[in-house]
Amino acid sequence: MVVGRKWVYVKPFDGLPKDENFRLEEEVFSDELKENEFLTEAEFLSVDPYMRPYMSSYPVGTSMIGGQVAKVTASRHPNFPVGAYVFGNFGWRTHCLVDPRKLPAESQPYVLPSFGRHPRSLALGVLGMPGNTAYFGFLELCQPKEGETVVVSGAAGAVGSIVGQIAKLKGCTVVGVAGTDEKCAWLRELGFDATINYRAVGESGFAEALKKAAPKGVDCYFDNVGGYISVAVLLQMNLYGRISVCGTISNYNEARAQVADPQREFVFKQLRQEGFIVTRWHKRWMEGIEANLRWIEEGKLTYQETVTKGFERMPEAFVSMLTGGNTGKAVVKV
Ligand SMILES: NC(=O)C1=CN([C@@H]2O[C@H](COP(=O)(O)OP(=O)(O)OC[C@H]3O[C@@H](n4cnc5c(N)ncnc54)[C@H](OP(=O)(O)O)[C@@H]3O)[C@@H](O)[C@H]2O)C=CC1
Ligand SMILES: CCCCCCC/C=C/C=O
């Protein structure tokens, strides 16, 4: 018998998540597995923005959703031997009994490929879902061309920091928008050509700051945040500009903002805007991971992680990420 712990969603979110939304519970697993089942023990867990809007569609009493890196501790599945490390969407739990046949195609667990000298936690970041969000969401939807100007909001986070570096690899001029001077300084170290600390310039100063940072206008916008930042970028898009709508974290904890009608920009600038969910590319998943790993090995792609230690601190790490406490990918080490 194995006793695990899990975080349960016990009260609907209202605004920023609070302690009262979560409860830590125990769960017991039998040692006797059925054919095709395997048992895991988590090593690293992910806290991601999507958990905030997605949980609202689950009933209270559901375990918190999320990805993790875990070790297989018992197995009756030939592809998941004891001792292997896997990625799985097993939720906020220390242990999990898995039967892959019960999971949808876009949420299949997989044994981690070798990351060489890099930590396994990267399977939750640049070598996992956020890295693939950057790789596919930017390259497929923005179709960047050498010499173009790219703006990335949420630029110092898990997705944005990778998007900006890929844009530099494609020969673009890159402007990053982030919430502190320290984050902006890191982005410039990564090769970003200009940065805007949106908290420092404020809503009223943002359009002017963007004009200075992107004097030739904007050809591609990778939007992680929505809200006034995105309205201002839209108004400075160039003819035939492309916008990849990845997320709207500025309003995950609030009612939706009322924004000005943007249709005129789309007509006269002939813009293209497309939203996406990264699992759209689940059949090409390993292509994104391999490309990002190759760039890391070649010294062309750099990552950073913000690691919180202790499974009991999952809610704290989640709220910290939602309020800008992370640089690069936010993960929890059990
Ligand atoms: N479409 C898809 O398939 C996917 C979408 N996403 C989306 O991508 C975005 C980034 O995710 P991810 O990289 O994992 O998270 P991050 O690592 O970027 O962490 C979230 C960051 O959001 C920033 N932020 C918080 N509030 C605001 C605000 N009001 N305005 C602007 N920025 C804010 C904070 O940085 P700061 O200090 O700069 O404010 C914070 O660090 C999210 O919107 C997420 O939902 C992520 C994965 C897949
Ligand atoms: C099966 C779970 C996959 C998670 C996909 C996350 C998509 C994120 C959307 C917005 O943040």
Distinct small-molecule ligands in the complex: NADPH dihydro-nicotinamide-adenine-dinucleotide phosphate, the ligand CCCCCCC/C=C/C=O
SSE ordering: EEEHEEEEHEHEHEHEHEHEHEHE
The strand count comes to 15
CATH-level-4 superfamily name of the largest domain: Medium-chain alcohol dehydrogenases, catalytic domain
CATH T-level topology of the largest domain: Quinone Oxidoreductase, Chain A, domain 1
Report the CATH architecture of the largest domain: Alpha-Beta Complex
Keywords: Acetylation, Cytoplasm, Fatty acid metabolism, Hydroxylation, Lipid metabolism, NADP, Oxidoreductase, Phosphoprotein, Prostaglandin metabolism
Subunit structure: Monomer or homodimer.
EC number: 1.3.1.48, 1.3.1.74
Protein name: Prostaglandin reductase 1
What would your notes on this structure say?
With 334 residues, the chain is α/β, with parallel strands linked by helices. It folds into 2 domains: 2-125 and 304-333, Alpha-Beta Complex (Quinone Oxidoreductase, Chain A, domain 1); 129-278, Rossmann fold (3-Layer(aba) Sandwich). It is 27% helix and 26% strand. It is built from 9 helices and 15 strands. It has helices at 51-55, 129-142, 160-169, 181-189, 198-213, 227-234, 263-268, 285-297, 314-322; strands at residues 2-9, 22-29, 38-46, 68-75, 85-88, 95-98, 110-111, 149-153, 173-178, 194-197, 218-223, 237-245, 272-275, 305-309, 329-333. Strands 3, 4, 5, 6, 7, 14 and 15 form a 7-stranded mixed beta sheet that branches. It has a 6-stranded parallel beta sheet with strand order 10-9-8-11-12-13, sandwiched between helices. A two-stranded antiparallel ribbon has the order 1-2. β14, α9 and β15 (329-333) form a beta-alpha-beta unit. α2 (129-142) crosses α3. The radius of gyration is 20 Å and the shape is globular. It binds NADPH dihydro-nicotinamide-adenine-dinucleotide phosphate (NDP) and ligand LAUSZ7GD. NADPH dihydro-nicotinamide-adenine-dinucleotide phosphate (NDP) binds at residues 48-50, 130, 133, 154, 156-160, 178-180, 183, 224-225, 246-247, 249-250, 276-278, 321, 324, 326, 330. Its EC number is 1.3.1.48, 1.3.1.74. It holds the Pfam family ADH_zinc_N. Its main location: cytoplasm. InterPro entries: ADH-like_C, ADH_N_2, ER, GroES-like_sf, MDR_fam, NAD(P)-bd_dom_sf, PTGR1. Keywords: Acetylation, Cytoplasm, Fatty acid metabolism, Hydroxylation, Lipid metabolism, NADP, Oxidoreductase, Phosphoprotein, Prostaglandin metabolism.
